[in-house]
Amino acid sequence: MGIITGGVGFFDSGLGGLNVLDACPFLHSSFPVYYYGDNQNAPYGNKTKEELAPLVFSAFDCFAKLNACAAVVACNTVTALFIDELRARYPFPVVGTEPAVLTAARRGGEVLVLATNATVNSARMRALATRAEKSFLDCTVRLCGCGALAGEIERHVLDEKYDFTPFFPKGRPSSVVLGCTHYAYVKKEIADFYGCEVVDGAEGIANRLLSLLKTLPKPTGKEALSYLPQKPSVFPSFFTDEKRLEKGRKIKKFRWHFPLYFLGSGGLQNLNFHKRMFVFKTNGKKVVKKSQKF
User: Could you give the domains of the chain?
Assistant: First the structure.
Protein backbone atom coordinates (compact mmCIF):
# COMPACT_ATOMS: atom_id res chain seq x y z
CA MET A 1 0.00 0.00 0.00
CA GLY A 2 1.23 3.48 -0.78
CA ILE A 3 1.49 6.62 1.28
CA ILE A 4 -0.16 9.89 0.30
CA THR A 5 2.52 12.33 -0.79
CA GLY A 6 2.59 16.12 -0.86
CA GLY A 7 1.82 16.63 2.82
CA VAL A 8 3.34 18.46 5.80
CA GLY A 9 6.24 17.02 7.79
CA PHE A 10 6.79 17.48 11.53
CA PHE A 11 10.14 16.51 13.00
CA ASP A 12 11.19 16.12 16.62
CA SER A 13 13.56 13.98 18.64
CA GLY A 14 10.57 12.30 20.26
CA LEU A 15 7.25 13.17 21.88
CA GLY A 16 7.66 16.93 22.21
CA GLY A 17 6.65 17.87 18.69
CA LEU A 18 3.21 16.32 19.21
CA ASN A 19 2.38 19.44 21.26
CA VAL A 20 3.09 21.53 18.17
CA LEU A 21 1.07 19.20 15.94
CA ASP A 22 -1.90 19.45 18.32
CA ALA A 23 -1.79 23.24 18.01
CA CYS A 24 -2.49 22.88 14.27
CA PRO A 25 -6.10 21.58 14.07
CA PHE A 26 -6.49 23.09 10.59
CA LEU A 27 -4.25 20.30 9.26
CA HIS A 28 -6.53 17.41 10.15
CA SER A 29 -8.63 17.52 7.00
CA SER A 30 -6.47 19.62 4.71
CA PHE A 31 -3.14 17.83 4.29
CA PRO A 32 -1.59 14.45 4.99
CA VAL A 33 0.85 14.80 7.88
CA TYR A 34 4.12 12.95 8.48
CA TYR A 35 5.28 12.96 12.09
CA TYR A 36 8.89 11.84 12.22
CA GLY A 37 10.00 11.15 15.79
CA ASP A 38 13.52 9.93 16.47
CA ASN A 39 12.78 8.63 19.99
CA GLN A 40 15.55 6.04 19.80
CA ASN A 41 18.16 8.80 19.83
CA ALA A 42 16.34 11.19 22.18
CA PRO A 43 17.07 13.48 23.85
CA TYR A 44 18.92 15.68 21.38
CA GLY A 45 19.80 18.52 23.73
CA ASN A 46 23.02 16.99 25.10
CA LYS A 47 24.40 15.87 21.72
CA THR A 48 26.84 17.78 19.55
CA LYS A 49 25.92 19.25 16.19
CA GLU A 50 28.14 16.67 14.51
CA GLU A 51 26.26 13.84 16.23
CA LEU A 52 22.87 15.30 15.31
CA ALA A 53 23.54 16.15 11.66
CA PRO A 54 23.01 12.65 10.15
CA LEU A 55 19.86 12.15 12.26
CA VAL A 56 18.33 15.46 11.22
CA PHE A 57 19.15 15.21 7.52
CA SER A 58 17.92 11.61 7.38
CA ALA A 59 14.49 12.78 8.57
CA PHE A 60 14.33 15.65 6.11
CA ASP A 61 15.53 13.44 3.27
CA CYS A 62 12.47 11.31 4.06
CA PHE A 63 10.22 14.38 3.77
CA ALA A 64 11.85 15.22 0.45
CA LYS A 65 11.16 11.70 -0.88
CA LEU A 66 7.53 12.18 0.14
CA ASN A 67 7.43 15.41 -1.88
CA ALA A 68 6.44 17.36 1.23
CA CYS A 69 4.96 20.79 0.58
CA ALA A 70 6.30 22.12 3.91
CA ALA A 71 7.96 20.93 7.09
CA VAL A 72 8.04 22.02 10.71
CA VAL A 73 11.10 21.61 12.90
CA ALA A 74 9.14 20.90 16.09
CA CYS A 75 12.36 20.84 18.11
CA ASN A 76 14.09 23.88 19.57
CA THR A 77 17.51 22.25 19.57
CA VAL A 78 17.38 21.37 15.87
CA THR A 79 16.00 24.82 15.03
CA ALA A 80 18.82 26.52 16.91
CA LEU A 81 21.53 24.45 15.23
CA PHE A 82 20.22 23.61 11.75
CA ILE A 83 17.38 25.85 10.58
CA ASP A 84 19.45 27.87 8.11
CA GLU A 85 21.02 24.73 6.61
CA LEU A 86 17.65 23.02 6.29
CA ARG A 87 16.12 26.00 4.49
CA ALA A 88 19.05 26.15 2.10
CA ARG A 89 19.20 22.41 1.45
CA TYR A 90 15.55 21.46 0.80
CA PRO A 91 13.08 22.72 -1.83
CA PHE A 92 10.10 23.04 0.54
CA PRO A 93 9.64 25.82 3.13
CA VAL A 94 10.75 24.96 6.67
CA VAL A 95 9.11 26.48 9.76
CA GLY A 96 11.30 26.59 12.86
CA THR A 97 10.50 26.48 16.57
CA GLU A 98 11.75 29.46 18.51
CA PRO A 99 11.12 30.21 22.22
CA ALA A 100 8.56 32.98 22.76
CA VAL A 101 11.12 35.19 24.52
CA LEU A 102 9.93 38.44 22.94
CA THR A 103 6.34 37.75 24.00
CA ALA A 104 7.40 37.30 27.62
CA ALA A 105 9.88 40.20 27.52
CA ARG A 106 7.08 42.69 26.80
CA ARG A 107 5.82 42.10 30.34
CA GLY A 108 9.17 43.11 31.85
CA GLY A 109 11.00 41.63 34.82
CA GLU A 110 13.15 38.52 34.71
CA VAL A 111 12.34 36.11 31.91
CA LEU A 112 13.59 32.63 32.70
CA VAL A 113 14.13 30.55 29.57
CA LEU A 114 14.22 26.81 30.21
CA ALA A 115 15.86 24.96 27.33
CA THR A 116 18.28 22.18 26.46
CA ASN A 117 21.99 22.76 26.81
CA ALA A 118 22.42 22.82 23.03
CA THR A 119 19.74 25.51 22.63
CA VAL A 120 21.07 27.65 25.47
CA ASN A 121 24.61 27.53 24.09
CA SER A 122 23.60 28.28 20.50
CA ALA A 123 24.37 31.62 18.86
CA ARG A 124 20.75 31.85 17.72
CA MET A 125 19.37 31.63 21.27
CA ARG A 126 21.86 34.11 22.68
CA ALA A 127 21.08 36.56 19.88
CA LEU A 128 17.38 36.28 20.67
CA ALA A 129 18.00 36.97 24.36
CA THR A 130 20.12 40.04 23.51
CA ARG A 131 17.45 41.31 21.13
CA ALA A 132 14.78 40.97 23.82
CA GLU A 133 16.82 42.91 26.38
CA LYS A 134 17.56 45.69 23.90
CA SER A 135 13.95 45.94 22.78
CA PHE A 136 12.49 45.92 26.31
CA LEU A 137 14.82 47.71 28.70
CA ASP A 138 12.91 46.69 31.84
CA CYS A 139 13.47 43.03 31.00
CA THR A 140 16.35 40.68 31.78
CA VAL A 141 16.63 37.26 30.17
CA ARG A 142 18.11 34.34 32.09
CA LEU A 143 18.97 31.26 30.03
CA CYS A 144 19.00 27.95 31.89
CA GLY A 145 20.04 24.65 30.40
CA CYS A 146 18.01 21.76 31.80
CA GLY A 147 20.22 18.95 30.62
CA ALA A 148 18.18 16.02 31.92
CA LEU A 149 14.59 17.35 31.81
CA ALA A 150 13.64 16.43 28.23
CA GLY A 151 14.86 12.87 28.74
CA GLU A 152 12.94 12.53 31.99
CA ILE A 153 9.76 13.75 30.30
CA GLU A 154 10.28 11.35 27.41
CA ARG A 155 10.51 8.44 29.88
CA HIS A 156 8.02 9.43 32.59
CA VAL A 157 5.40 11.73 31.08
CA LEU A 158 2.59 9.19 31.57
CA ASP A 159 3.51 8.61 35.22
CA GLU A 160 1.24 10.98 37.16
CA LYS A 161 3.18 10.45 40.38
CA TYR A 162 6.59 11.26 38.95
CA ASP A 163 8.17 14.42 40.39
CA PHE A 164 9.87 16.59 37.77
CA THR A 165 10.59 19.52 40.10
CA PRO A 166 14.17 18.41 41.01
CA PHE A 167 15.04 19.15 37.36
CA PHE A 168 13.75 22.77 37.52
CA PRO A 169 16.41 25.41 38.28
CA LYS A 170 15.69 27.56 41.32
CA GLY A 171 14.59 31.18 41.00
CA ARG A 172 11.75 33.69 41.26
CA PRO A 173 11.24 34.91 37.70
CA SER A 174 8.47 37.18 36.45
CA SER A 175 7.71 34.74 33.65
CA VAL A 176 9.02 31.46 32.26
CA VAL A 177 9.53 30.62 28.59
CA LEU A 178 9.61 27.00 27.51
CA GLY A 179 12.51 26.52 25.13
CA CYS A 180 11.88 22.83 24.42
CA THR A 181 8.68 21.33 23.06
CA HIS A 182 8.93 18.45 25.54
CA TYR A 183 8.51 20.88 28.45
CA ALA A 184 4.91 21.67 27.51
CA TYR A 185 3.88 18.34 29.07
CA VAL A 186 4.89 19.67 32.49
CA LYS A 187 3.71 23.25 31.94
CA LYS A 188 1.39 23.16 34.94
CA GLU A 189 4.13 21.79 37.20
CA ILE A 190 6.47 24.55 36.04
CA ALA A 191 3.82 27.23 36.63
CA ASP A 192 3.12 25.92 40.13
CA PHE A 193 6.84 25.68 40.94
CA TYR A 194 7.66 29.29 39.94
CA GLY A 195 4.27 30.88 40.65
CA CYS A 196 4.22 32.88 37.43
CA GLU A 197 2.98 32.74 33.86
CA VAL A 198 4.56 30.15 31.58
CA VAL A 199 4.77 30.81 27.83
CA ASP A 200 5.35 28.35 25.01
CA GLY A 201 5.58 28.97 21.28
CA ALA A 202 3.18 26.36 19.85
CA GLU A 203 0.48 28.86 18.89
CA GLY A 204 2.99 31.08 17.09
CA ILE A 205 4.29 28.11 15.10
CA ALA A 206 0.73 27.15 14.15
CA ASN A 207 -0.02 30.67 12.95
CA ARG A 208 3.12 30.79 10.79
CA LEU A 209 2.36 27.40 9.28
CA LEU A 210 -1.26 28.33 8.57
CA SER A 211 -0.19 31.51 6.75
CA LEU A 212 2.26 29.49 4.68
CA LEU A 213 -0.17 26.72 3.75
CA LYS A 214 -2.80 29.20 2.59
CA THR A 215 -0.49 29.97 -0.32
CA LEU A 216 -0.06 26.32 -1.36
CA PRO A 217 -2.42 24.04 -3.32
CA LYS A 218 -4.06 21.28 -1.32
CA PRO A 219 -3.28 17.63 -2.17
CA THR A 220 -5.86 15.61 -4.08
CA GLY A 221 -5.70 12.61 -1.77
CA LYS A 222 -3.94 10.44 -4.35
CA GLU A 223 -1.76 7.67 -2.96
CA ALA A 224 1.66 7.09 -4.39
CA LEU A 225 4.39 4.56 -3.64
CA SER A 226 7.34 6.24 -2.01
CA TYR A 227 10.62 5.04 -0.59
CA LEU A 228 10.65 5.09 3.21
CA PRO A 229 13.25 3.74 5.66
CA GLN A 230 10.50 1.62 7.24
CA LYS A 231 6.78 1.02 6.83
CA PRO A 232 4.85 3.87 8.43
CA SER A 233 2.13 3.62 11.02
CA VAL A 234 -1.03 5.47 10.08
CA PHE A 235 -3.74 6.98 12.22
CA PRO A 236 -6.71 8.59 10.42
CA SER A 237 -7.14 12.13 11.68
CA PHE A 238 -10.94 11.98 11.62
CA PHE A 239 -10.79 10.47 15.11
CA THR A 240 -9.39 13.76 16.34
CA ASP A 241 -12.14 15.72 14.59
CA GLU A 242 -14.85 13.55 16.15
CA LYS A 243 -13.38 14.09 19.61
CA ARG A 244 -13.31 17.84 19.14
CA LEU A 245 -16.91 17.80 17.89
CA GLU A 246 -17.94 16.04 21.10
CA LYS A 247 -16.57 19.03 23.00
CA GLY A 248 -18.91 21.36 21.17
CA ARG A 249 -16.34 22.96 18.91
CA LYS A 250 -17.52 23.81 15.41
CA ILE A 251 -15.49 21.87 12.90
CA LYS A 252 -16.53 21.52 9.29
CA LYS A 253 -17.08 17.91 8.19
CA PHE A 254 -14.85 17.27 5.20
CA ARG A 255 -15.53 14.58 2.63
CA TRP A 256 -11.89 13.49 2.67
CA HIS A 257 -9.85 13.08 5.82
CA PHE A 258 -6.13 12.81 5.28
CA PRO A 259 -4.20 10.38 7.47
CA LEU A 260 -1.46 11.08 9.95
CA TYR A 261 1.65 8.95 9.36
CA PHE A 262 4.12 8.21 12.16
CA LEU A 263 7.66 7.71 10.91
CA GLY A 264 11.12 7.37 12.40
CA SER A 265 12.43 5.18 15.19
CA GLY A 266 9.55 6.15 17.49
CA GLY A 267 6.72 5.59 15.01
CA LEU A 268 4.55 3.18 16.97
CA GLN A 269 5.39 4.76 20.33
CA ASN A 270 4.37 8.22 19.12
CA LEU A 271 1.21 6.89 17.47
CA ASN A 272 -0.02 5.35 20.73
CA PHE A 273 1.05 8.35 22.80
CA HIS A 274 -0.76 10.72 20.43
CA LYS A 275 -3.96 8.71 20.87
CA ARG A 276 -3.72 8.77 24.64
CA MET A 277 -2.76 12.40 25.16
CA PHE A 278 -4.35 14.28 22.29
CA VAL A 279 -7.19 12.21 20.84
CA PHE A 280 -8.82 10.30 23.67
CA LYS A 281 -7.09 12.42 26.33
CA THR A 282 -6.82 9.53 28.77
CA ASN A 283 -3.45 10.63 30.17
CA GLY A 284 -2.43 7.00 30.10
CA LYS A 285 -5.34 5.85 32.29
CA LYS A 286 -7.32 3.90 29.70
CA VAL A 287 -6.38 1.29 27.13
CA VAL A 288 -7.05 2.44 23.57
CA LYS A 289 -7.74 0.47 20.44
CA LYS A 290 -4.88 -1.28 18.72
CA SER A 291 -2.84 0.80 16.31
CA GLN A 292 -3.48 0.61 12.61
CA LYS A 293 -0.34 -0.19 10.63
CA PHE A 294 0.64 -0.69 7.03
Answer: 3-97+204-279 (3.40.50.1860), 101-200 (3.40.50.1860)
